[in-house]
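Note to self: keep these together.
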Amino acid sequence: GGLTAFYAATCALAQSDLKRLLAYSTMSQIGFMMLGVGSGAIGAATFHLLVHAFFKALLFMGAGAVIAHAGHELDIFRMGGLRRTLPRTFWPFLIGGACLAGFPLTGGFFSKDAILVAVYLQGGALYGSLFVLAEFTALLTALYTFRMVYVVFGGGQGGTARHAVPRIMEYTLPPLAVIALFGGLLDLPGGEGGWLSRFLGPAAGAPPHAGGGLELVLQSVAAVIALAGLVLAHFLYGGDRWRGFAFPKPGREFFRQGWYIDRLYGFLFVRPYEALARLLWRRVDEGLLERAAEGLARMLGTAGHRLGAFAGGRVSFYLAGFVMGVGALLVYFGAALFS
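Structure:
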């Protein structure tokens, strides 16, 4: 779970396709959920699952409005300036982004913090390393989230055409924004004693309890990391600065291609499967089965042709054949009767 969260966050950081960016962010958040499950915090993982459903639905719905407004353009670097032309989309989208980034006091902040507390409380070198990795991933999450917000809604006007967005698309956003913003009310910070914990009961496992002072310290660290991601995104992408900033090309392409996992998967699994399929097709299907079927067809055709030579239209020949057949049947039944 920790590695998945980190992997997908680095990929999202280099995406220019708005839907791919949100898809990688979903993969990353699912990694956080699995990290919570692996730390024994089933309740915290379920808490994050529900809150994530709220704000990610908001972000995807907002992305749909943005894409419709931009004439079905997906490249965020061809957008820009949509805060002025899509204010009804911008503010709910900003709330969804704040939840995704774990901004303090949002639903995403409390649900992600519950997982981080659970990882920290496990102790030991393994979980300590996972805690550091998760906090660094949280920083990347805040960075790529506000990168998306700055590039799409900030700066000057991009190169895309502007189209009217159906109001029904924008009317769905405020309710989702309210639910996402106050999703932390499903459970208290740390997953203690809230409605969700009571609903799950023993299935949620023991809730992570760090004590008041330690819990506050961990929440403060999470808040600082989210704010640091916002500041870094503002420094790199605020205003029109994003036009002059880009990651180095080798690293950008490596992350944009998903660490080339698809190519590795193709090399290890797809290409051998295709080679085996070609072998079975050419050697077994065409080379053996089709030739056997064609040989059998030729043999039956030859036999039929030779038997057809006896059908010359002579009645005497047909009568002789009938007599021989009846004689063969009489011999067969006679032998069976006296045996």
